[in-house]
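This part of the workshop introduces the protein records we will be handling. To make this concrete, we reproduce a full record directly below.
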Amino acid sequence: MKCKVAGIIFLIGSIYYILAEAISATFFNASLINTYFFHTISELGIPNANSPLFWLMNSAFILIGLTLIFGNFYKFNDCIVKRNVIVNVFVLITGLGVILVGLIHGGNPLTSGYHTLGAVMAILGGNIMLVLISRSMEEFAKYQKITLILGIMGIIIFWVMFFNMKSIYMPVFERLSVYTLIVWSFSTGIYLTNL
């Protein structure tokens, strides 16, 4: 029963994130395509006229962070048989990083450093977490292989983004490196509900 509850939590967190971002992007002060291609996810969470649903995007950041932490320590952690401590450290780094992004928005010179720290914790830390998880479970079957591929993709895309911060397509790289975590959260939900 705990597996199913944890699985449902992962599913709800990931679905809420995708829907919240899509709705926030729809009401952003740009066309939907321009928003996804030329505006970062963080911009959707800045409280100003451009993003009237900033609170929805920030709630998605906070919820996905809580999902990762609660889902892991409630049940998923039982699946980790090797490197348990380091995996838990990266779960906390990732979850707290995403929550920090939701609580401290970008665009404010006084607090943008904290927002950036949270983003790095969430994106880089989260994709490293995926690689660690994939190699820390009892078997290396389909779910673990998907987790490893997502983690490696996320790390590579993060570094592409890092070295192209001034590119007009930087938001695309940002989204791709974040979506690896959302896809993993969804696939983990499916994995746990089928245990």
